[in-house]
């Protein structure tokens, strides 16, 4: 049974009040599940969101080139003044993306996502 990414995204949004966005993007930069938390001010336009996803995919691809030396990427965290952005590779064509208020407990959030994704792999 495949994991329901919309349900996982909702669980992530409910995990911590500082989480602004949780969702899945494919390698074409399209958000396929999840979305913005209700009543949260948007910081990026739709075009800026697409650009942000493109950069996350590009970063994942760059680090994939080093995987034979340092292992596969487990997550990426970028802290900005107004937001912290995280990406967690699901597979070669999907990324789980999360944005939070600055200084949120991102390790707790990443551990939760890894646990959910790994538990799904264990049942396959």
Main attributes of the structure:
Beta-Lactamase; alpha+beta; 5-stranded antiparallel beta sheet; 4 helices; 124 residues; 27% strand
Task: Characterize the structure shown.
The chain has 124 residues and is an alpha+beta fold. It has one domain (5-37, 44-123): Dynein light chain 2a, cytoplasmic (Beta-Lactamase, 2-Layer Sandwich), CATH 3.30.450.30. It has 4 helices and 5 strands; from the N terminus they run αββααβββα. The protein has helices at 5-15, 46-64, 67-70, 106-123; strands spanning 19-26, 31-36, 76-79, 84-91, 94-100. Strands 2-1-5-4-3 form a 5-stranded antiparallel β-sheet, sandwiched between helices. Strand 4 (84-91) and strand 5 form a beta hairpin. The longest helix is centred in the middle third of the chain and has 19 residues, at 46-64.
Our measurement of the CA-to-CA distance between the termini, rounded to an integer number of angstroms, reads 7 Å
Examine the coordinates and then state which fold CATH places here, giving the name of the CATH topology: Beta-Lactamase
Side by side, the strands of the main sheet go 2-1-5-4-3
Query: Which structural class matches the secondary elements?
Result: alpha+beta
Annotated CATH architecture:
2-Layer Sandwich
Please, what is the CATH homologous superfamily? Dynein light chain 2a, cytoplasmic
Total helical segments? 4
**Backbone shape:** globular
Query: Spans with pLDDT under 50 lasting ≥5 residues?
Result: none
Report strand %: 25-35%
Q: Describe the biggest sheet?
A: 5 strands, antiparallel
Question: Which value, in Å, is the CA radius of gyration?
Answer: 14 Å
For the residues shown, what is the average pLDDT?
A: 88
Order of helices and strands: HEEHHEEEH
Question: What level of helicity do the residues show?
Answer: 40-55%
